[in-house]
């Protein structure tokens, strides 16, 4: 039976409506039965037909309908992975990559890392000879293009979670569109949880410039998988609440008191508030002798064992409470959720390079801020409650706020990110005209110019905006943020590459410290044992040294409030970075105790993040040299309250103020040494915003 295609001339896009079809069955195991019950199964034939006949297929379907776990398997069953070819499925989030890959391996009854594997940065669980279905982050697939520009080993690439519009997803979509012109046999599947599909289809539509008429049809088809979510009753707060964390905690407790069994999913913003909520709920439940609550955190960087708890079925008579970032919004499906508590917030990247000093919210430095989610996100969150039976969603904001103030859609990350890494990747792939690149959503020219300027100052781009050789190519090759890569390269000159590679590894993980659940004082005391007067980066070196001297002991970590899993990860990343360094001909050398060398190398990478303490500041107010933004040292830094006159920082987090995380003191003369072009003007003028 041929599927029915509906042509929608208006948007130049084809719509497709599938009539249900199912394949013949024989002797299914219960796993097979489970697979067949998923909504996407009815569309199996239709999906395979479209992939066969179309260069691009766009699939829209409710979270949990089986897009991510099933479609790659259908493709494999239909032979797309034969003849040495592979099927790729990308995800914006690392944790989602791991979780879906292990689920699919389980469904296929194979060992993870063999036929089904995954790759995330610094973790490759694939086998060159065996792996046929590969899950990976979109960032990793972008990196693979550096060695294999046409991604020739893949027959089908499924770009999943496209509605998230992550920076790497958008870059990837732009590049895949280019690759398609060179590889007509390549098939793309773009899958999404929301009907942002039309824009995507328009982006991939080539109707305007039709090519030679051979091979698959160029116009993308849209297939909508009808979900079978149950209805969800929505509750709003009557008046705005001052503290969403407290409100979330008390909502969970009253659901547990008053509502029938069923798991609870709470959306908060990040590790800090999630850990705090886990602790508060656990304490409250203990003190009021409430039985039967299993409280679990869910955020990226969660150890493997904790991830497994999230997915394991809730024991009888118990109620699971999962406190999550927006990773549970669409990337992961949790069975058994009946109640959702939505704070209305998430952590979002924010960047505004605005050259205009009157612009209200200039953040020349990229910032991670807690910001309101969009209506589209709020609806997704609500939907998570209707998975197994009618559910309830408690929104911790007013109905009026939802209707009148919440933005309808989120802004693509491309338009609110620092583009330094993006530009360097495109340059490394030989795309010179960045401003003219065909983006799914164009970034602001200002952001691109700022990125070019930073890369020029880093010595990565030359006067013609081409990658410098070898520095530019080396920075692009190292799978780290360009500023960190530059710091690693510069360490050679200062004879401290061993130390700086350790620092680079630590900056790649969330934190070396064990989350201070209710033990802030002990944690602070432990930190003092390692604290270095120079700042956090040198402190990390002390922690790493202690870890090595203890023989990588978990006991030692426990005693010192150091996160053992994080330190093991640091050791692994460090080994990989050393290997990359050796390949690039970087001399590995230790400076022993010359910490000035280390600080100079850090400055060579992070000069753009330099700040000066305000001369008469009593509360530790700093201003960035470049844009006079007001920033403070984060309380978790060893330099908190020490307030050296000049510092560079690694990143900014915003809560009530903008806080610098990972801070090191520097000598201002190093800035002009490291980046004369960037700084000479600013340093001569005491008030750079007036220049
Ligand atoms: P989609 O990508 O459309 O959101 P998925 O393919 O991720 O849907 O999930 C389909 C179904 O597979 C889920 O509803 C759930 O029942 C099951 N599933 C997915 N991941 C897991 C997992 N890690 N553990 C157990 N079940 C899972
Ligand atoms: Mg999915």
UniProtKB/TrEMBL annotation:
Gene Ontology terms, MF aspect: ATP binding; hydrolase activity; RNA helicase activity
Gene3D superfamilies reported for this sequence: 1.20.120.1080, P-loop containing nucleotide triphosphate hydrolases (3.40.50.300)
Spans traversing the lipid bilayer: none
EC number of the protein: 3.6.4.13
Catalytic activity: ATP + H2O = ADP + phosphate + H(+)
Coiled-coil regions listed: none
Annotated protein name in UniProt: RNA helicase
Source species taxonomy: Eukaryota, Viridiplantae, Streptophyta, Embryophyta, Tracheophyta
